[in-house]
Structure formats: C-alpha cells, structure tokens
Amino acid sequence: MEEGRDYPPEEFEAMFASQEGSNRNEEVEQGEEEEEAGGSKPSGKVSYVWKYYEKVPVPNKPRHFRCVCTVCCDIKKIMKSYAWSIGTGFGSMSRHLRNDHGITASGVGSQTQTQLSGFMSEQSGGGKPFFYSQKNMIDHMATFVNLEELPFTYGESVNVENFNRLALQPSYSHVNRHTLKDRTMAQYKEQKKELIAYFANFDGRVALTSDTWTSKQNNPFMCVTVHWIDNDFFLQKRIIAFDIMEEKHTGYNIYLRLKKTLDKFNLTKKLFSISFDNASANTKCIDYVLQMDDLLLNGDLVHVRCCAHIINLSAQEGLAFLAPLLEPIKTCINWTRNARSMKTQWKTLCDKHGLRNKQWGTDCATRWNSTYKLIKQALRYKNVLTEFYNSHQRDEDAMIDNSMWTIAANVCNLLKPYYNATNVFSLVYEPNVHLVILECLKIVIAFKTAENVEPCLIPIVDDMKTKWVKYFTSFPYIYGVASLLDPCVKQIGLTNSLLFYYEMLNIIDFDVEIYVQKCIDVLRELCKIYAKDKGESSSSSSVTTKSARFDDQLHSILFRRTQSSSSSTSTLATKELDDYLTHGVDTNDTDFNILLWWKARSIQFPLLSKIARDVLVVPASTVASESAFSAGGRVLDDKRSRLAPPTVKMCVCKRDWDLAKIRRQGAKEFDPLEADEIVATDASSGN
After folding, report:
1. In degrees rounded to 5, what are phi and psi of residue 223?
2. Residues 522, 477: contact at Cβ < 8 Å?
3. Residue 215 confidence class, pLDDT cut points 50, 70, 90
4. Structural Rg of the chain based on CA atoms
5. Does the pLDDT at position 26 exceed 50?
6. Does the pLDDT of residue 585 top 80, yes or no?
C-alpha cells in the first residue's frame, strides 16, 4: 500500500474522466483476495473503508486504483489519495481515517462521537457530516489563539480542556504550548510562501508604509506594510516585515532593511511609493531609494509624507493656548470623579435634566483628540455642567456662563475637520490619497471661520496655521494626480479647490495653473509608460453636475469656474486621458466608491484604470504601521515579555494575514488618534 499523497484538482478531473464505464462496485474485505475473473463469486462483505473512499482506476493498469478520501474532499477541501490494488489490504486508508478524522469500523473512536450525521455545514456545501479531528482542531486553535492574541499556553489550560470536553467534544485532548507554537509557525511559513508567489505574478504596483517602534522591553522594531489594489479593484494590505532593528536607525540602514524586504517578496521592481513620517532618517532613506531601478518617473512620486503626523503637529500648536480657555469645564468634569457626595449630586442633576449619568473620559494633555472628544461630549451636558460647577463656585467671576460654552463650541468646530481628516487618512480598505487636498481645504476653511466668529481664537489659529503652511504650502504631485483621477473632482475641481485653499491662507505667490498643468503632465507621462496598445475611446461633451459627496459650500468652491477645464485638456497627448478629463465630473451619491467606478470603466479607460489602481493605493498616512505597533504591544505584554523576535514577527504578521482574509484589519482595535507614535513633536521628528 502506497502512502497517501495530495493531487491537484486538474489531475483528478482527468482521472475521474477516465473512470467512465468502469465497474465501481467492486468491493472486498480487508486482507481477502478476490477470485480471478470467471472464478467463484466474491464475498458479500464490504469494508467500512469504502464508505469514505472513492476508487479511481489507474490507466493501463487493470485492478489498480487511486482511492480518494471523500472526507478530506468535503471537510478540508483537499484531495488525499492512496494506491490500492485488488487483493491487498486497507491499512494505510484505515489509519488515515482513524488518525486524521477519528473514524473507525464502528463509526466512533475511543467511545466518543466523532461524526455528527445531522450536522449541516455551509462551508462543506450543506448536508455533509462533521468529523472531529484532533489535527484539524489544533490547526484551528492555532489560528484562533493568534487572532485573539492569547498566550500559547491557552491549549494547556485545564479550564479550556474541561469546557471543550463537557460542552463541545468529549474526545478533545489538551494541546501543549510547543505544539501550538510550532503549528502557528508552520501556518505562517505556508502563508508567506503563498504571498511571495502571489506578488511574483502580480502585474501592478505597490505602496509601502514603514515606521520604527520600541517595545516595553526596549527592543526596537521596524514594520513594513504593503498596500495594493488587486485585479478585482479591492484594496489590500499586508504586514510583510516586523523585525527587530538593533543597528543604528540611519537612513542607509533603513534603506537596507526595506530593500531586503522588497527583494524577499518579489516587489523590488513593483514599487510605486513609500509613506514615511517626518523623521530626518526617513527623509535620508528616500535618497537611497531614488537610486533604485524601475521607479516610475525617476522616483518623482515615491516619497509621501504622513498627513496624520502633520495634522497632529498643527493641532498640538493650539493645545497650550486652548487649555486656559477650557479650564473651568475640565475642572467641573474632574469634580464628577471625586468625592462620593459630588458623584451623588452629579447623578441627581443628570436625572433632573433627563440625561444619562455620564462617565467622562480622561483628557490627556499631549493628545489633542482627547480634548476634542471631551468638549464635544461636554456640549451635550452644558446645562448640567453649568449648574453643577456654579453650585460649588463662590467667586461669581469664575462661574461658567454662556460665553464660555460659545468658545467651547467654536473650539470644537475648529478641531472637528482635524479629527475627520485623521480618520479619513486612516482608512484601511478605501483609498484616501485623492482626498488629501479636499480635507486640507476643509481645515483651512475652519481656520478662517474660527478667526471670524471668535476673536480670542485668532492667536491660537495663527500658531496652528504657521505650523500648517510649513508642510502644506505646496502639495506633492501625487496628491494632485490622485485628485485628477477622482471622477467627482478632475481638473476643474482641483483647480478651484487650490485657488480657494491659497486664498484662505492669504498666499498669493503660488501659481495654481502651473501646478495643475504639471499634474496633468505627470499623468500624461504615466499614460505613455503604461501604454501598450492604443485604443480609441468615445469622447463625450464636458458637463458639470452636482455631486452628493460634497455639501453646498464645498461644491460651489470646486466648480465655480467651469470654463477653465476646456483650455487645459486640449493639450493632452493621450486621447483616452483627454476623453476622461473633458467628460466633466460624475454625478454620484454619498456612498460613492471610486474603485468600483474605475472597475466599471476599465474597458472604456483601459490605461487610466490601470494607472488609477496604482495611484489610488498610495496611503496618506503611516497609520497601517502604527496599528501594527499597537498589535505588537499587545503581543509583547507583561505576560509574554520573553517572546523571541521571530515569534513576535510571526504573531503580528500571521494575525494581520488572517484578518485580511475576512477583511477585518483595523476593525475596532486601533484608534489612530490614540497612538503614542503619532503624537510627536518637532524634536522627535527631526524638524
């Protein structure tokens, strides 16, 4: 008897096709030889093995078969087969059923039920019996333990063992930590091979995000995350490196790490961009990256700065000045956490006003978002807070009045676009690079509004604005190109949004027309690079229709000069690009999906749709790497502080890959505004 081996589905299709006309009812008992043709009648006994195997005749070998395990086909979705010939035994096949599926001659194993005949499994197609397998259970436990960030000793827990035996499966046996760790590592290596093979055949470009982090154990780690849009126009993300970096964090050493990772995953010639924060070492690293071959446009689009980091730097500028204005409100909230008598009074006041007894979050002096959230929540309780605070305040001049709540509301309105923009730049499965200029426009509009409605906020806004223009006086071309590829913005929307942006900042020496034309030229050069076969595209007249994605104010800004679009597009060298730009903006609803839009028009715009896949994948922030550090901190908690760096890498990467299968990366597990890594100062960023 030959040991079992797995067959590819194509080979089995051919084998099953050759089975037509053969006698599939030829069954024999174990160890019993069948009489030669024309001899006595074979025994009527049939081995239980044949309930779970399908015989496939071997071509040109009479009386020889490959026996396929139907349980593996149904449950594990693999084809396990054994060589068998008439007159031989079934030892290997019966051992496989017993060891891998818990099936014996009586249908049960070790006096425990391993088959649930009435179990309807959607994954197995419905109507298929469930077979308990210790090996299969260990595989799933390894995945579960890593996803839930549990210690490998989970399988050794007596409580877990009792629960499984009493409530789920009597034949459950505990799994020691070494087995669980080894199985997790085996799964990680297999998934890594699959990912490397996938990128070897991937025909698009990828974007990277990278950052460094120091754990509680003072071990420095470097994370590299790859982003790409697949052939079905779904945005994908994978952590491909989470390595300890003991060498000095210089630009050259960071480059060497990146290059090694790119080479390992077959991505060296498929790099489109790298998103970094503002650390000087990262900027120096880009100088080495620009020396690499196969970069588009000599690397003009490679370097992307983390927008969330810049937003944080600007918001931090206003925190010191905002604190005195909001001090009475913060003091009042702190009182609700103090003595029991005050807590009782607070609860009574909430009941009086018909509000829930609010349990306040903590305001962190170094996290501007905590101040925003606190003010936003306090505005709903302003009447209760005012009565509560003033009842304990003897100095009438220090009491809270309506003017203070007006200031708080204006501060909240000032910080709201910061908060919204950070959330937009932290999206996992939706592109955000085409939204950078629009989100920045909303922030500078908030500057102007705050200055007009609240004079006491003018010095605060001035400081925030000074830090803002340091980084966003001129936008990198990648943001402009991405905006052009937004069918709801295009050339006219980009031009007018920039004109209004610089008008709000009182910047008069920036030539918007030159910038927009340069973005169009970049897009034209990309068309030439991507072009293989030039096809004709149908041209449509230029129209401008209102998009539900933008409110009335933003729409009037984007499309107030409709006549400017026709003159610029006439110089485009590519007819496909010309047809796209002159078609005007597209009408859509608030649930507009830019990737689905380009997928639906991949035939109409074959070149541009491919360019859009590679441009729109660029992340506007390094939050993907920040979330990996958040996961790394949970893996290296106080109970697992001795995990070796390769084990930490395995846990972080494999968990991310498993979550990617169900598209749950970043789901309610990481707040980009709460990460210590994003909260940085000029000193830490090298500026």
Report:
1. -110, 140
2. yes
3. confident
4. 32
5. no
6. no
